Amino acid sequence: MTVPRARERPLRKVAGWFIRGLLISAPVAVTIWLTWTVIRWVDRLIGVDIPGVGLLVTLLVITTIGALGSSWLARGLIAWIEDVLESLPFIRLLYTSSKDLLNAFVGEKRRFTKAVRVALTADGGVSVLGFVTAESLAGIGDETLVGVYLPQSYNFAGQFILVPRARVTPISADSSEIMTMIVSGGVSGGDSAGERPTAKAP
Questions:
Q1: Confidence band (pLDDT; 50, 70, 90) for 96?
Q2: Minimal CA–CA distance to 179: which of 192, 165, 189?
């Protein structure tokens, strides 16, 4: 059964409205659902029945720890705790890995700030986007290489690769835009991305 042409245009318009409504409402719904799920999970973890109280308590506790950690006495205690944790074989791996990962994103020693384009072929026709996280690899006996972290699209994983400096080109765009562009598979971010015309490897 074919749809008459007189009815085809209204149906296509309604279908277009539906798709547009889906594009508007779906991201909002997913964001609200994930936020609510996290809030309720924290509430259950702490053992309170009032929505949001657990998250508020968690934020207050973390902020209080940060304030106390700024004092001279607390710094000595924190340093002692870190020494104890780093002296335990398996605990050391978990502690140092999580600490370095958090510092790389939000700490004072953030590492994902130098966005680069890495040429995978000699002519540069195929390349990937990443972040230089190790500018010197003298510790492994090769100063001609740099360490580049390549985030994966639609994933929270990534790869750490070693490439020659000559194949790394710095990008002048904001690092957060490049990260968004990579994680979204190129769908979001990177609107103002542009390479420095005469930039050399870091």
A1: confident
A2: 189
- For residue 104, the one-letter residue type is A
DSSP 195: B
Q: How many residues does the chain have?
A: 202
- The rounded distance, in Å, linking the Cα atoms of 123 and 116 is 17
Q: From CA 193, how far away is CA 173, in angstroms rounded?
A: 5
Residues 160/133, Cβ–Cβ less than 8 Å? yes
CA 107, CA 175: separation in Å to the nearest integer? Answer: 15
Decide: helix, strand or coil at residue 115. Answer: strand
**Do the Cβ atoms of 92 and 82 come closer than 8 Å?**
no
pTM of the model: 0.52
CA 18/CA 91 separation, integer angstroms: 52
E-only strand ranges, 37-126 = 115-119
> For residue range 125-174, what is the model confidence (pLDDT) as tens digits?
888 888 887 777 777 777 778 888 888 887 777 888 888 888 888 888 78
Q: Find out whether 161 and 193 touch, Cβ atoms under 8 Å.
A: no
**Between the CA of residue 171 and those of 100, 144, 176, 193, what are the distances in Å?**
24, 20, 12, 7
Report CA 25 to chain centroid distance, whole Å: 24
Q: CB neighbours (10 Å) of residue 155? A: 10
How is residue 126 annotated by DSSP? Answer: S
Q: Where are the domains of the chain?
A: 115-183
